[in-house]
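I'm stuck. Please check this protein.
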Amino acid sequence: MDVVKRKGRTEKFDERKVYASCYSACMTCGMKERECEMVATKISAEIKKWVRKEKRVTSLQIFRKVASVLKKVHKPAAFMYETHRDIS
């Protein structure tokens, strides 16, 4: 599965990136390590399943899907995930 990045280049989908960004958002919220792992695993598995159904996705589509799913699981972590681009 190819992911189209913001500047138009493509790369292979890497669920580890989804896991890492979810884990980081959870840690920023002060969640315990085990809970962060559980949430990140759940979200990355759901995104991987979704991506498999698509022929090609953009990084923005992945970003929005992760934020949407994360909101259902942990709203403060979703907020941190959504705003990490603004502060990095």
